[in-house]
Amino acid sequence: MACFYPSFFPNKMYKGFLFLAFLLAFQFITFGAFSKSVFFQNTGRIAGKVVDEKGEGIPGATVRVAGQTIGTQTGIDGSFSLAVKAGTYIIDISFISYQTKRITDVVVKSGEVTALNVSLQQQTAQLKEVVVSSTYRKSSTEGLYTRQKNASNITNGISAEQIAKTPDANVGQSLKRISGLATFDNKYVIVRGISERYNVATLDGTPLPSTDYTQRNFSFDLLPAEVIEGIVVHKTITPDLPVGFAGGMVQVNTRDIPTKNFVSFSIGTGFNDQSTGKDFISAKRGKYDYLGYDDGTRKMVPSFRVTDGATGAGADDPRGFTEADFQYARQFTNNWGLYKYKTQPNQNYTFGIGQNYNLKKDGERIGFIATLNYRNTQSIVDVVNQRSIFLFSPQAINNLFDGNPTGFGKIYNFNTTYGGVLNMGYRSKKHQISIRNSYSRIFSNPTTIISGYDNESGGVLLGAQYAPSTMRIVTEPDFLGLLQNKIQGEHQAGLYKLNWDVSRTALNRSRKDMLRRQIVNNNQLYGNYFHDFVDADAINVFPLSRQAFDVKETDYNWTASVSRPISTAPEFTGTVKLGYIGFNKKQVNNFITAYLRPASNNGFELDPNFVIEDVHTPENFAPNKLAYEVNPIGLNSYDGTSQFHAGYAMVDQTLWEKLRFVGGLRVEYFKLQLIGDAISSLNALISSPNIVLVANEDDIDKPWQILPSANLTYSVTDQFKVKAAYSQSMVRPEFNERSFATRYDPVLQGDVTGNLVISTKTDSYDLRGEWYPGLGEILSAGIFYKYLDRPLELTKRGGQDLYVYNNGFWAKSYGLELEVRKRLGFINSDLPLLDQVTVFSNATLLRSKVRGALPPRPELVDPANPNVYRLVSQPDERDRPLYGQTPFLLNTGVEYSGKIFGFNIVHNHSGRKFYLLTDNLALNEYEAPYDQVDVQLNANVLKNKGKIRFNFGNLFNNRNFYYNGMASYEPIDPNNAEAGNRLKPGYTDGYEKDDVITFSRKYGRTFTLSFNYTF
User: DSSP secondary-structure letter at 540?
Assistant: First the structure.
């Protein structure tokens, strides 16, 4: 295909991706012969890692074949590699002040690597020469779970192996499988009922930037599941974590340098029962859509400018359009037409290679791992949308429409996702250096088409017997790329260990030619006769407008720490650690809105019942015809920088071999500078030049913060631990949350904008008991409580289709978490089959209470100076949960892992979620409880080198819907609207039969088949 040739590549980044692919092919060809000639002889290797009870690598530990002189020592991170002839061995692992461990039945095959991960325990005064024996299988599994069991803080997670047993295509879909986590739109994460903005994402330990235009969150669907080694969610804080959070820190780790050489590939396809083969409607596709790049099709105009003319109602001085305006309008492309395609099956491909080489010097190794992945999906989602102009009262819906929806349609989404990882490393006994590179790109192009009845226009026939009066069409071509480069090192010098890393993360997000179109039905009595129209007085993006924005952000992150033991006595082992964390962010955001207007108010020469793609011609941009209006607010930009510096001191101290304390202090400095922030934008909108608006003192962030944290672990036994934690943390605002730049959300049917917002300070308390009865098994129960000072929430303002961020006064959130994972072998030890069956479940109960804030009002700073005002908010006394709160979460399932066949059944339940906050309790929106069941059947083939997976996703295709409480609330005082509303007797915030479903969607069932082979 010609489109793969370099001359067709749209930019340098794609050429870089091609270079990565070329490098992988070169490595495969070059080292393939080397591997066969050197490695695949009558020898194999034993490789793995030796860690202590805390999960930290033990450098300098001795790994020796019992009865022979063959042996080696572990490197700085505890890893080792030992070459031996094929056979069965006994391996002794020892280190001073630790109990020696003997591993029996270690089988080494010719040309293969046997993975051996081992945990050593401290010697006690009574046990100085004890040798602990275990089998090869036990020690390998034990090493896998050591980090979770012995983590200093409270964590949950999911491994790449667990992800592979689900139909999940990306991290966003996998997160809801983790205890205490829910997701919104399968890409934004909610941890412990705390909304997405209070949770942070890291990739290989480096914080990731916000990917959204107006919200502080990360779109986890950007990270393909194929490149992930595992996900760990930190729920309590230690001083050395790279960033603060209120809910959790989602740590995504890419695949590390392997202990076993491999080359693997996978290929898969699938279909959706309500999408594949059906008519797919969208704007015209470009030549590079399958590659995730625009070929220029979506370029609106060569360059943007503010027009001279402005006929809109918002114009301060309405003027006529000039000839320069018409010449400008004639340069706009005509992308208004819709095209019909056939929805193609899903397709995905992955290629990976990992190589590891022992150098001449004992303990020295180099290696690399690289993966490439590609996925394309085309989906049709059935939706009901009864927001904005399609919103009616429950009585109107029942009486006029017989309960039928007043707004309905489909979302057609074309999605291309691909990425790559190239990680390289060097390890010796005292040094380790790693270079990590990852790139992900997603092109998402949803086209939303909603038909319905306009509740805000006169002359509309309302009733199920009439054809819809209005149709809204929105297209949003979204190109999102994330590139991260990181170098990190670990060095041992005597008793001192030095860790450092430096990284660069570049985010580039462009939404090109977002078309907003509202068409009306010429005669509802006789069916669908829709046509376009223009409106000089329109105050939002409808009836006809085009938008685009471009966000570029570059983050530099760096950390450094030094640690050393302060006691080596078995009863009182301890380590002290000093460190520094910093980042510098720079973001530039450009956006444009171009409104299609009648060229003058003196007449309109075109047929008023036109179709825009037919009349969008150069000759029709002229007086008394059409013009594009771009006003100064519509063509705008903001840019900003933020700096963060933190120093910390912490101690990791074990007392009497049972009690472990990890805690310390962290001193943070944060400063955000934004050109075009909310306060300057408000001053620019004030008509009087003598009036000045200043920020309220309570709405100004203090640059310095001192934050303590403490984690306490008591080991009742080696298998049963009790953990307690306390911490303070700060969640900082993003650029977009402090800017008045807006974007139109087709789901909310309104604009989202930033505001005068500040950081949120959180006090967190945790208590959890964890019991590990067997390998890969856990039973745990925990409670937590959080107090949020100045929580930030997204609020819908009055009757406007405008959503604004606003700081409340305080919030309290608390809950209970339960988790169980257990093999069934304990039922009957005489049935080995039961030991291959695992049942698992986790449940979370959540509650919260908020003291919100009413929209701020201007107040004189000094009565003697009538020109200076500040915005002051009053408390909102309504009793309600925290924005984003989900009261109940449940994951449960069963898996069978046989030598040849296996299956996995997973059920995910998300309880009612507080989704949308308004200034009217009756209009608050909730997401109704939602259930999803996924099933996977798998088989090992071709001598266990191949695996076939058959996935059934969203098996029961339940409808996901949102509702408000218009039928559940009544006025407190019918004669005083300001008194607010209250629940009717016997009603709750749960879905009642007469409540209005504001939005719903059905995704369809997905069936996929994939094949993976590893050489």
Answer: S
